[in-house]
């Protein structure tokens, strides 16, 4: 009987040890974010070379496009410009960290949360404060990195490395709509009610047809565990009509103003042009290029969203509306080498 008891104890101990090992392995795997692994030296060296080449290509496309349309520092006064362009950069929108030789123009809905968070870390803001949810990260960042005014800002932009992160213009516009205008009930801590009152209600008043019917359910995405919209918000189609017919330079919002007006790439010679579509490798490249790897690590701080969101929402639009929207943001498309072609196939049949 004693032997049986001893055998049972041994089996229990083995079971506990095995369970403990499994638990440790699982916890290790969960804690180790695959997306935050820094490449080993050989892989890192290869990534840096490849991304450097891609960055040079992106910079060249920007310069050629600015020259093509006679804009900014490439302007020939004897020739007409195809686009109305700001005479100076918007100095107040930049986050300039002179101590780390970095100036960043935040294009909202294009990886801005990730890089504003990174800048806060560079300014020794504690992650506990950034993750507390008590304030928006942009508010914390602006407190840590006050605006610079001309001529101080102009001097800083000439002497620091300048970073710009862009995204496919249509994807950014859709993200802005879904985050700020689609649902005035949810996300009020992020200003959705403010956006409804300032923009949404006016869009509905101007662009809603008398025989309006809401989009079919297959043309919208409802987020789980989120209250339904009130039914008073603009549709994506109405938002697009507003964008097409509005002077965005004077009446737009930071979340959908064109890149060329907000970050003025024909006036500011950006050293690094990153893209949301390649943000992981672009982050690694930027961090190592600017020697920031001891302070910040590459990380994605955005919700993944829905891969087919554009296919769904652009189904509310006709090809004609998509074409007009493209024309409105054409310069952004050309400056950063994006194409609208895939989106025409999402258009409704009639």
Quick recap:
It is a single-pass type II membrane protein. The protein has helices at 2-31, 41-68, 112-122, 127-130, 137-144, 152-159, 169-180, 192-207, 236-245, 248-251, 259-262, 279-289, 309-313, 319-328, 330-335, 341-344; strands at 95-97, 102-105, 161-166, 272-275.
Task: Give your account of this protein's structure.
- GO terms for molecular function: sulfotransferase activity.
- With 350 residues, the protein is mainly α.
- It has helices spanning 2-31, 41-68, 112-122, 127-130, 137-144, 152-159, 169-180, 192-207, 236-245, 248-251, 259-262, 279-289, 309-313, 319-328, 330-335, 341-344; strands at 95-97, 102-105, 161-166, 272-275.
- It has 3 domains: 2-32; 41-167 and 261-289, no CATH class; 171-257 and 306-344, no CATH class.
- A 4-stranded mixed sheet has the order 1-2-3-4, sandwiched between helices.
- A hairpin with a 4-residue loop joins strand 1 and strand 2.
- Helix 8 packs across helix 9 (236-245).
- The chain starts with a helix and ends in a 6-residue tail after the last helix.
The pLDDT mean sits at 88
Low-confidence stretches: 22-36
Largest sheet: 4 strands, mixed
The general outline is globular
What class would the helix/strand composition place it in?
A: mainly alpha
Distance between the termini: 84 Å
Order of helices and strands: HHEEHHHHEHHHHHEHHHHH
Q: Count every beta strand, where a strand is a DSSP E run of 2 or more residues.
A: 4
Number of domains: 3
Radius of gyration: 25 Å
Helix tally equals 16
Query: In which range does the helix fraction lie?
Result: 40-55%
Strand order of the largest sheet: 1-2-3-4
